[in-house]
Amino acid sequence: METSLYRYILKHSANGQVVLIILSLLSLPVIYITLDLPKRIINMLEGEDALSEVMGIAMPSDPVTYLMLLSFAFLFAVLLNGVIKYVINVYSGVLGERLLRRFRYELYVRILRFPMPHFKRVSQGELIPMITAETEPLAEFIGESFKLPVLQGGMLFTYLLFIFQQDVWLGAAAISLYPFQLYVIPKLQNRVNMLAKERVKMVRSLSGRIGETVSGINEVHTNSTSQFERAHISHRLGIIYEIRYAIYRRKFFIKFLNNFIAQLTPFFFYSVGGYFVLRGDLSIGSMVAVLVAYKDLAGPWKELLRYYQRKEDIKVKYSQVVEQFNPPELLDHGIIDAQPESLALPGETVRGNSVSYTEDGLYFSVDGANFNIELKHHIAAVGLGNSGKDELARLLTRLINPSKGSILLDDADLSDLPEALIGARMAYAGANAYLFTGSVSDNLLYPLKQTPLDNAEPEINPEREATRRQAEISGNSTASIEQNWVDFNRIGIEDDRSFRTRVHTTLETVELDEEVYQFGLLSQVSQSDNVDLARRVMQARQRLRDLLQQKEYSKLVEPFDHEKFNSNLSLGENLLFGTVYDERIDPERLAENSAIRRVLDETGLTDDLLVAGQKIAEIMLDLFADVEPGSELFEQFSFISGDDLPEFQQVLVRTRDLPAQQFDQNDSSLLLSLPFKLIPTRHRLGLIDKDMENRILDARRRVHAAVEAETLGIEFFDESQYNPRISIQDNILFGKLAYGQANAQQKINNLISDVIVDLGLRPDIVDAGLNYEVGVGGARLTAVQRQKLGMARSLIKSPDFLIVNEALAILDTASEKRIISRVRELMQGKGVFWVLSRVRLSEMFDSVIVLERGKLLAHGSFTSLSENNETLQTLLEQD
Fold first, then answer.
1. DSSP state, residue 507
2. CA gap 652, 670 in Å, rounded
3. HEC profile for 96-133?
4. Alpha helix (H) ranges present in 338-428?
5. Band (183; pLDDT cuts 50, 70, 90)
6. pTM here?
7. Nearest CA-CA partner of 301 in 254, 250, 258, 253
8. Rounded to whole angstroms, how far apart are CA atoms 608 and 591?
9. 112 CB-near residues (< 8 Å, 6+ apart)
10. Which tops the pLDDT comparison, 590 or 282?
């Protein structure tokens, strides 16, 4: 990277900087005119001679006309100066943001070129702030790097020229203290810059420690080390505080010194200038003009001093960032960016010649390994944790490069092959597969998103073209994220149907298909985007309804029927009979919504529900008065939490002898919140009779009408319609499990599964499950699911050489054995190198490599090595 900030700016924005300089110079004559015209106006008002002509143009002799001409000329000059400054400021801002965008993009690209061991020495908590926060000040400075000294320096020269033209002595007074400031201020500022550099380092250290705390939060809580971590953070914050305190002392002393010096010069103006006015050697207009000019003079001078201070600070930041992003052994950009003509591996044999690897130059985790691996064989690697098997796997996939020796594909050095070739034809699955934020599908298909498809360019429109042009000017990638990046032709698949089959086969291979199927069952699918799926779900709903008519299943589910009261739904669910997606409706406090409360009043339900609320509160207080507030009984059986019992007790005291119409509004809201939780078949409190059920149905119809009138967010249950606000499983069931039926959930699950299989709906539901969001780093998946998805991701591109580095170690032995068998079957005729944690499983492979303390001890069949190799025999005994 360019080590000089100014060379970097000129390299990428020289033309723009020239434009800014020209505009800045053009503004100087206009600034001079804005200084001269007020002087002429004052002198004209004092009765001094006016100009008879300007640039050959005769001036009016009438004083009033002349005054108006000068005034409007002054207004025009001010307006013109403002327009020029506006253009300068906007263009400098654009120029700065473009270069900042370029710089951040280059830093990110550098991260992609970092050697893998470097990530062990630098944390993301340090790198991320450097690209985001620490580079932010660059944008403003880049825009003004050349423009500001030219513009402000030019303004300073213009003001001084004007002052000297009025009086030489006043001009000398104006610049008398500049040499002192030019000598002292930089020396004081230099120490501030050094302190700023120290502060940046400490802030990075703080970010790194906070990042470690977030990553290791489990260890912090399980070991109760929060006090220790607080001490760490407090120590770093204390150092930052001391540095900032020292910066403030020096920074504001500089400001005090500048302000004091700035006030000394007016003293000379008032004394010396006033003396010359009294003597008649200087006009009042000239004196006033000098004072105005000097007042304006302070601005450019302060801006120049500020520019110098910011320049030094920005240079420090830039040099630190560049230094941090220039690690040794940076990967060559040609290897990362090159697109080979052929995506075929240049050989059939991987050969290691005296391969050694070390990170510190002292300890060799792989030491002088020689090997030959045929790309049609399946090989297992075994050894203890420090045997070097992990490093050997990463060497084979070029995540790291040998410190000594070489790895060849026939005659081609693996370290020289383009990354596009390695990424297309080789695959690596590690124990800690990282999942990106997005869906299961996004992560599964990630290996196929190497380049956008040429024939998939989105429709060109002015907005898209402007975006592409800005990216090109800023040196960023011009590829659009809206393009189709999934290239299944690269893996030998010609149509969508075959590709879908590949996806499903891959999921089945790693035994992830059942989990994705469950994700699909529990997912919500838009009918507009999946018309066919919605139609088939409706078929499944009808098929299930037919099955539920059978005597053995008839009592398991109470189907949704908008003309019937559902005794297995709560009263609130019966009232709404739909899914709420409107923030204005709180399902826990339905009566607080004005539209719903109006319906309750119209149907006479309000008073009845208040009375029911009183009875429920009385029952709850009677049953749970002696139960501890934190007891699980509250969550399982109570309408009221343990913390809220005292409040409801007070409500009952206040409302005991009052009619419902006289209840306080707050008391009414609390009491009305209780009956809506009542489920008749479960709670059996006898508070809902047939008359109330009928009135609830009447209220339901009124609520639906009110919802349509006020556009409230409720998706109603309609037996004839697919409901996009509930899951696929709930759409098929479209009812409520009957309370008290033994094993109802399992029986219904089996029925739904049978219906789905009979209708051939399972693949479609798996497709829906592929849209399940995995969360940050795959946090919404279990550790087993993350490993399986990482394994599936390496298989989806059908690699010629698959390296598996304990990628299924978290699974039980039986599951790992089954998946190994399926992967080997899928990879027939292709190379597999599998690092195992369970040594006994190595008997499944064509041959076994045995490593110990970085040495490759043996390579042969499992049968022969288990009989003749002591190291393998020992590993088998320990397995």
1. H
2. 11
3. HHHHHHHHHHHHHHHHHHCCHHHHHCCCHHHHHHHHCC
4. 389-396, 419-425
5. low
6. 0.78
7. 258
8. 13
9. 336
10. 590
pLDDT at 237 over 80: yes
DSSP-derived pairing of the beta strands 349-358 and 412-413:
unpaired
Amino acid of residue 771: N
Helix/strand number for the chain, H first, E second: 34, 16
pLDDT level of residue 291 (50, 70, 90 thresholds): low
Interatomic CA distance for residues 658 and 133, integer angstroms: 63
Half-sphere exposure at residue 847, Cβ-oriented, CA atoms within 13 angstroms: 13
How many residues does the structure list for the chain? Answer: 879
List of residues 6+ apart from 61 with CB closer than 8 A: none
- Lowest mean pLDDT, pick from 298-307, 414-423, 793-802, 818-827: 298-307
CA angle 807, 121, 327 (to 5 degrees): 110
Residues 6+ apart with CB under 8 A from 717: 560, 562, 577, 578, 579, 723, 734
Q: What is the 3-state secondary structure (H, E, C) of 151-185?
A: HHHHHHHHHHHHHHHHCHHHHHHHHCCHHHHHHHH
Measure CA 818 to chain center.
Answer: 37
Q: What is the mean pLDDT of the chain?
A: 84
Q: Exposure of 426 by Cβ count < 10 A (0-12 exposed, 13-18 middle, 19+ buried)?
A: buried
One-letter amino acid of 137: P
Residues 608 and 599 sit within 8 Å (Cβ to Cβ): no
Average pLDDT estimate for 402-425: 90
Please give the full DSSP string across 692-738, using - where no structure is assigned: HHHHHHHHHHHHHHHHHHHT--EEE--TTS--TTS-HHHHHH-EEEP
Segment 682-740, tens digit of pLDDT: 888 888 889 889 999 999 999 888 887 777 788 899 888 999 999 999 999 999 999 88
| Residue 687, number of CB atoms within 10 A of its CB | 20
Contacts of 151 (CB under 8 A, 6+ apart): 24, 27, 88
- C-alpha–C-alpha distance, residues 29 and 692, integer Å: 87
pLDDT for the residue 178: 64
Q: How far apart are the C-alpha atoms of 9 and 17, rounded to whole Å?
A: 9
Q: CA dist 70 to 26, 41, 163, 216, 312, Å?
A: 21, 7, 20, 73, 44
pLDDT band at residue 622 under the 50/70/90 scheme: confident
Which secondary structure element, helix H or strand E, spans residue 406, and what is its range?
strand 404-409
At 126, which amino acid appears? E
Specify burial of residue 525 (Cβ count, 10 A radius: 0-12, 13-18, 19+): buried
Classify residue 492 as left (phi > 0), alpha (psi -120 to 50) or beta: left
Cβ-in-10-Å burial (0-12, 13-18, 19+) of 744 comes to middle
pLDDT at 625: 74
Q: Which residue, 408, 403, 378, is CA-closest to 391?
A: 403
Share of the chain above pLDDT 90, in %: 30
What is the widest separation between alpha-carbon atoms in the chain?
121
Per-residue pLDDT, 294: 62
For residue 207, what are its two tokens?
Answer: 């970010």
φ, ψ (nearest 5 deg) of residue 556: -80, -35
Kind and range of the H or E element at 790?
helix 783-795
